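dumping this here so i dont lose it
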C-alpha cells in the first residue's frame, strides 16, 4: 500500500488480503490502511478486524491519530506497535555532488532475472515491522524484497532500475511507482553491501529523482524511523518529511494462544 492511499481522503478503510504474506507465514494475513483524511473510530475498526477471517491484520495509520493504538483494543484481539514509517519528498533537481558516478539502467523482464540474488543480498537482514512479531520469523526478508522487485519488472506504471559502475558492476536497485500524475514514489532502493559508504546510494537516488523532476513530478519515499543512515542521506539531498505512519500488528487472541502453546516444549 503506497502513499496514494494514505493521502486519498475518499478512501474508506477496509481489510485486504495479503496473499504473499499469508502463503509465506502459513496463516491469513490482512492489511488495513487508514488514510490521512479519515477520522478513525477505534471501536469500529477493531470490530471489523475481530469479525474478519484474518489471523493477523497489519494496520497502518497516520501517527497524528495516536489514540487509535488504544482504540483498537478488543477482547478477541491482541495488538502492539510494530514500527513507524516516515515519508519524505522533494521536487528539486539535484546536482551531482557525490564522487560516485553510477549509471541507471531500466530493467526489462529478460535482463532482470540475473539480478534476483543481488537484490536478495542487498536486503538480507533488513529490519522492518516483521521483526516485531515472532509470527513472522519465517519470513526471509531479503528474498521477499527480491521477489517483489522482480515482479515489478515489466508491470504498468512501474520502473525498475539497476545502478551500475563500469561494465556489469551492478551496485544497486530501485523500484519506482509512476502511476500518479503529480509525483513518483520510490518503493525500494538499496545498494549492495560491498558498495556502501562510497556515495553510490545518493548518486543512484539523485538520478532517479532527476528523472521524475524532468517530467514535472515530485518524488516521495519512505522508510522506518530506525533507518537513520538513509534518512540522513535524504536530508543531505534536501528532502523534507511529509508524513508519519504507525504500524500495528493486530492478532486474533486465539491465533496468538495457539502459537504460544506450540512453542512450549
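and the seq i came up w/
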Amino acid at each position: 500500500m503506497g502513499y496514494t492511499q494514505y493521502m486519498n481522503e475518499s478512501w474508506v478503510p477496509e481489510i485486504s488480503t495479503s496473499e504473499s504474506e499469508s502463503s509465506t507465514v502459513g496463516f491469513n494475513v490482512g492489511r488495513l490502511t487508514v488514510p490521512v483524511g479519515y477520522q478513525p473510530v477505534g471501536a469500529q475498526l477493531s470490530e471489523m478486524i475481530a469479525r474478519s477471517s484474518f489471523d493477523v491484520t497489519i494496520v497502518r495509520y497516520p501517527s497524528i491519530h495516536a489514540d487509535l493504538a488504544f482504540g483498537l483494543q478488543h477482547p478477541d484481539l491482541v495488538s502492539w506497535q510494530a514500527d513507524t514509517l516516515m515519508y519524505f519528498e522533494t521536487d528539486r533537481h539535484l546536482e551531482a555532488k557525490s564522487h560516485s558516478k553510477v549509471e541507471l539502467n531500466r530493467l526489462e523482464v529478460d535482463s532482470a532475472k540475473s539480478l534476483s540474488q543481488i537484490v536478495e543480498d542487498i536486503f538480507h537482514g533488513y529490519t522492518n515491522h516483521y521483526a516485531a512479531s515472532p509470527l513472522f520469523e519465517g519470513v526471509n526478508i531479503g528474498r521477499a524484497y527480491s521477489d517483489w522487485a522482480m515482479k515489478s519488472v515489466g508491470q504498468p506504471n512501474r520502473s525498475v532500475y539497476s545502478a551500475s559502475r563500469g561494465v556489469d558492476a551492478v551496485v544497486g536497485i530501485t523500484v519506482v511507482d509512476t502511476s500518479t500524475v503529480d509525483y513518483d514514489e520510490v518503493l525500494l532502493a538499496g545498494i549492495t553491501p560491498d558498495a556502501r559508504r562510497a556515495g553510490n546510494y545518493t548518486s543512484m537516488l539523485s538520478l532517479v529523482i532527476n528523472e521524475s523532476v524532468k517530467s514535472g513530478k515530485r518524488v516521495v519515499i519512505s522508510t522506518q524511523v530506525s533507518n537513520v543512515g538513509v534518512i540522513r542521506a535524504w536530508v543531505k539531498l534536501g528532502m523534507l518529511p511529509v508524513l508519519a505512519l504507525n504500524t500495528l500488528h493486530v492478532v486474533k487472541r486465539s491465533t496468538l494462544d495457539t502459537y504460544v502453546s506450540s512453542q512450549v516444549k
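The domain at 89-221 is CATH 3.40.630.30 (Aminopeptidase).
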